[in-house]
Amino acid sequence: MGSTFGHFFRISTWGESHGAAVGVVVDGCPPNLDLTEDDIQAELDRRRPGQSRVTTQRKEADTCQILSGVFEGKTLGTPILILVWNTDAKSEHYAPFQHIYRPSHADYAYDAKYGIRNWQGGGRASARETVGRVAAGAIAKKLLDTQCGTEIIGYVKQIHKLYADVDPASVTLDQVEANIVRCPDPHCAEEMIAQIDWARRQGDSLGGVVELVARNVPAGLGEPVFDKLEADLAKAIMSLPASKGFEIGSGFAGTTLTGSQHNDPYEMRDGQVHTRTNNSGGVQGGISIGEPITLRAAFKPTATINKTQETVTDTGEATTLAAKGRHDPCVLPRAVPMVEAMVALVLADHYLRQKAQCS
Amino acid sequence: MGSTFGHFFRISTWGESHGAAVGVVVDGCPPNLDLTEDDIQAELDRRRPGQSRVTTQRKEADTCQILSGVFEGKTLGTPILILVWNTDAKSEHYAPFQHIYRPSHADYAYDAKYGIRNWQGGGRASARETVGRVAAGAIAKKLLDTQCGTEIIGYVKQIHKLYADVDPASVTLDQVEANIVRCPDPHCAEEMIAQIDWARRQGDSLGGVVELVARNVPAGLGEPVFDKLEADLAKAIMSLPASKGFEIGSGFAGTTLTGSQHNDPYEMRDGQVHTRTNNSGGVQGGISIGEPITLRAAFKPTATINKTQETVTDTGEATTLAAKGRHDPCVLPRAVPMVEAMVALVLADHYLRQKAQCS
Amino acid sequence: MGSTFGHFFRISTWGESHGAAVGVVVDGCPPNLDLTEDDIQAELDRRRPGQSRVTTQRKEADTCQILSGVFEGKTLGTPILILVWNTDAKSEHYAPFQHIYRPSHADYAYDAKYGIRNWQGGGRASARETVGRVAAGAIAKKLLDTQCGTEIIGYVKQIHKLYADVDPASVTLDQVEANIVRCPDPHCAEEMIAQIDWARRQGDSLGGVVELVARNVPAGLGEPVFDKLEADLAKAIMSLPASKGFEIGSGFAGTTLTGSQHNDPYEMRDGQVHTRTNNSGGVQGGISIGEPITLRAAFKPTATINKTQETVTDTGEATTLAAKGRHDPCVLPRAVPMVEAMVALVLADHYLRQKAQCS
Amino acid sequence: MGSTFGHFFRISTWGESHGAAVGVVVDGCPPNLDLTEDDIQAELDRRRPGQSRVTTQRKEADTCQILSGVFEGKTLGTPILILVWNTDAKSEHYAPFQHIYRPSHADYAYDAKYGIRNWQGGGRASARETVGRVAAGAIAKKLLDTQCGTEIIGYVKQIHKLYADVDPASVTLDQVEANIVRCPDPHCAEEMIAQIDWARRQGDSLGGVVELVARNVPAGLGEPVFDKLEADLAKAIMSLPASKGFEIGSGFAGTTLTGSQHNDPYEMRDGQVHTRTNNSGGVQGGISIGEPITLRAAFKPTATINKTQETVTDTGEATTLAAKGRHDPCVLPRAVPMVEAMVALVLADHYLRQKAQCS
């Protein structure tokens, strides 16, 4: 009952990791937007497993089909169904774990909640579910770009204990895509790749932080007091698999400043109200003010590792789990398009909401 | 259009900081719950301005009235309206700022969005709006306590650069309420109070972190994939005024661990599945697993300070703002009941949702 | 959990018939709309009990107060709280029925659902709850009138077996308000009044039909496939107390025509597409087309009568109920502003929705 | 933005009449319900075009596939995606009408709203969209049957001026399915079939009324004051293509009774509170009371006819439309499963809602 996101630009994802297919319905996309499968495929390719040596090696082409809502290259204003068939859904990999709760996976939680689960892979808890999010996010991105010139750029800011040096004001998509780890600090990127290679060899996994900047976001987006822009962004990010933290603007670091240090003075630039600094992260009182939106998302190290772990079975017996085979040593490079998609979905939703209120 | 929160246990707050009254409608509270105004007043008193020297000195008794939904001491299952009259709404304090955008306040954002604002105080952006949240949260707390034995305990973990040492597993409400800063580490609490006194004298303000633990939360709460428990908790927290960050379990610190360090091994205790560690913060795959839920909320330093600041007027002229008079040097002590209220509202909502799915 | 209506122009009513007060929160009204308590009072006065000899004689001034959301005569875009104190809530009238299920009232239904009810009057099932609807509807009417010139005119079309002759194309508010029964056919109105007087003397009650026309409704309102305009209108009407039927355009009578008789031919008038006939009732495919919207709402005879009736107690014993005292012999005259309010709420909601989709 | 229905048992339909496929996502179906494609196919076969000589002759097998949410014959509690490929989507039939507004179709309305439409058939306004509703309704029916023993039986009560004599208390599915017109009055059914044959030969179409009874509906379903059971039923029915009216219990006819005639006296039967009569139609105060729910839905004659009609083009020129080829002379027989599906969806949604409130 929780697979729908958004109010005006509303998506419903569906599909289990090892079921027949995964996908999404997008309801509320305005009519007459140019849209083709290529627009969506481009983002899916950034999310795709097996795209490089630093990601999971599951083999999925992730080719999308649009089955409704688009006619002669334009959106109709009706629901858009996007479908991706699962092709590398080898359930035999999972047969040994059918009755074993993998630590820090959702196996036990799903059993506790539903009393049943598709043990062939992570089911809905798998990152595979994000195929639908990224596909829908591609449409949201296109809408925002077409109507507002909005740019949404995410990148890997941190992996394990390696911190990249990136200027959100100037970072470009090309810089992000210049390496397989999606870190626009080239020197740090090399170290990150080496670190991931090490983790893979160890059968271990790494966490990190994705940072994102959204530029040219119209002022006025966000609905106080509960649907504040940062609140919906936080929900969007924290709904991604493996996310453990969210911050906007100065975030946790800003708590060590005083008010006189933290407040963003207003000034006029180009005849427009601007803030001199951006500790607010582009949002004040829950509403965008036209400054770049900056946020960060923390991802824990992937739960699947190739080391022996202690755990219990679904009948309550102590056992050990010794996974063997492919694992995803670091989700961060693929998390970048996921974070971007969620931010785009929030912004598109609030953009349409705000239009309803203008006179 | 964003003043409603929750789906099953649904609240709508209303009221401006300097309007006639503030309050809340609670729709969806189950019938036959014992409830009196005292239950609500107790929490409002913890949120009340002027409760101690470390908070804002606005004088409000914040006495609540229940106008509907309760009959002979029990809830009817119908909407509960709670009203608190504003008594210390002196708009003359704000007259000088009628046309000046106060830095890092919501003045400019509201003008940009609505084209109009109640300049007599912060309007809906004021922390006064949280009266309705805390009142509704008191009902949610009572529901959870009565039906599940759930305990929700928040406390000040950090103010400015002072970090308290607190064990979430054992902290009690009495320890929290033992001092005016709501920090259960007595030594640190004294330092925090001194720090706030200093900030007040400086005309400056301080930020910090509220930490919260929720014990005896039933397993199975949370609705993947978008209404995951941590996603709704993040939205709830990030909808509070001045919040800039949210984390659950290991949070941002957990990103520097490896998977083998971070995974929580399962074990049997008292015939029940438990995790040995709790990096997950009580939630896996978006679903509560019966372990204590632990989270942290970052609050920036309050925007109102008594120092001269540069800014602009609503007609775009550079000016300086020199506020004089009472200000709130640190919102953290009063943020504790606010955070608790939001967490209680999320848990109550998901508790009712989960009941709908059980067989 | 069902006291909220609308998505963009969203209202939440609260209050029991014999509680302290009744009212509504309106969330989503656009900012900068001129609004005073007089705008709302005018509609409440049309709904008020005791306004004439053909309605219930409960004495309520129904004076409204706006407690939030309006500043210096204009809406702020924030929630609007409207409150009406109950003054004639004499619970002793109801003491004899505390344990008796009044036939075709909601007493038994509420006990079955909630296991508790406020037996002092009808609680939420009372028509008193519609105070909040009519108050909110007054705002919706003003919004539609100001921004679209929309006119919403309801009137009594039928009482018992008396059918008025009214032309929806030309009927005016003055004609409706010219008599206490709100029937713009003066001759029929007199008969209706006599019929109601007869029913009152008999201790009995009468049903009937309210017809409504909405003119100058913009084309394009309605959201296929579920939130079609007629679907939301039907829900709105059928949520009113005592309503048993809804039809739009040709309605049930249209089922006896053939397609060639029923189809509305298109033609150009004043450079605009129009239909020659209006069997569609102004809606095609769930979307307004700019023609007048015409609909009808059936209301059963009021359940409260002064005749002896067989029934059972809440412990399952057969008994008889002999109500004595004031009763409402016919709700139809007061149902007119209720129906208008609900239609206005639906149109305002869809008007704002449609704005979100325009380019 | 209106293709989602329900809150707890929530469906989103997608697909245009002449697009690649049509279908539905069902979110909120409880886990562990036995479900196969056969359960769904059985209902789709009752809705299928070409099933008999009295329906449209479009050739569609309407074979459904479940792509998610079901594992080893049981629901997972995750979204269920059902897909039906369109196979007889011959757009060339519609090429002549690409720029002509067909009277009482949604062509003009969609152009007015969206500024674009898929002219190859009715798009979302086509009855083809109801494939997803009927598929989802089959799941809702199974849930209600399994958990409550609820029986939902619809039938054709009236076609044109022919009225069937049916006792809702005793009618059976077998009686309904005994003839191709789905009228359980065998004599009237024969006349109806002859009437439809006549209409087909004339190139004309007929309207009528579907009546429905739901037995063994638990007491307590419905959420006053807006989500009353009859309000949600009305919305559900009025969202179906070609519906023009809805009534419950005594409906419009009940408006000519007095209160003393209309009230349903309570009595005890089998130790349970019952009403002696059922003018209420099983619902009082918006809440089911355990009596059979009876309702009626009016359908206008189908808009597609084979007679010459006056109309205009999308550039505002007068023209005539002379459709040739297959048309649907009467939608009533196929409307029966559609009405049943919508009622099942409403009941399932409210059944789950009510579970959330029980203690």
For this structure, the CATH topology of chain A is Chorismate synthase, AroC fold
Separation, N- and C-terminal Cα atoms of chain A = 35 Å
Cα Rg of chain A: 21 Å
Low-confidence segments of chain A = none
Mean pLDDT of chain A: 95
Count of DSSP H/I helices of chain A = 8
Q: What's the architecture of chain A in CATH terms?
A: 4-Layer Sandwich
Which class best fits the helix and strand makeup of chain A?
alpha+beta
What portion of residues of chain A is helical? 25-40%
Q: What would you call the quaternary organization?
A: homotetramer
| Series of H and E elements of chain A | EEEHEEEEHHEEHHEHEHEEEEEEEH
Strand content of chain A: 15-25%
Q: How are the strands ordered across the major sheet of chain A?
A: 1-2-3-7-4
CATH class of chain A: Alpha Beta
Q: What features would you describe in this structure?
A:
The structure is a homotetramer of 359-residue chains. The first copy, chain A, has 359 residues and is of the alpha+beta class. Chain A has a single domain (4-357), classed as Chorismate synthase AroC (Chorismate synthase, AroC fold), CATH 3.60.150. Helices cover 28% and strands 23% of the residues of chain A. Chain A contains eight helices and 18 strands. Chain A has helices at 37-47, 107-114, 130-148, 173-177, 186-202, 229-238, 259-262, 332-357; strands at residues 4-5, 10-14, 21-27, 64-68, 70-71, 74-75, 80-85, 151-159, 162-163, 208-215, 243-248, 266-269, 272-275, 283-284, 287-288, 293-299, 308-312, 318-322. In chain A, the strands form six sheets. The first copy, chain A, has a five-stranded antiparallel beta sheet with strand order 1-2-3-7-4, covered by helices on one side. In chain A, strand 8 (151-159) and strand 9 (162-163) form a beta hairpin. In chain A, helix 1 packs across helix 3, helix 1 packs across helix 8 and helix 3 crosses helix 8 (332-357). Chain A is globular and about 65 Å long. Chain A starts with a strand and ends with a helix. The A-D interface holds A 1-4, 8, 10, 12-16, 19-23, 25, 27-28, 31-32, 65, 67-69, 71, 74, 76-81, 83, 113-118, 123-124 and D 1-4, 8, 10, 12-16, 19-23, 25, 27-28, 31-32, 65, 67-69, 71, 74-81, 83, 113-118, 123-124. Strand 11 (243-248) of chain C pairs antiparallel with strand 11 (243-248) of chain D. Chains A, B, C, D: This reaction introduces a second double bond into the aromatic ring system. Chains A, B, C, D: Pathway: Metabolic intermediate biosynthesis; chorismate biosynthesis; chorismate from D-erythrose 4-phosphate and phosphoenolpyruvate: step 7/7.
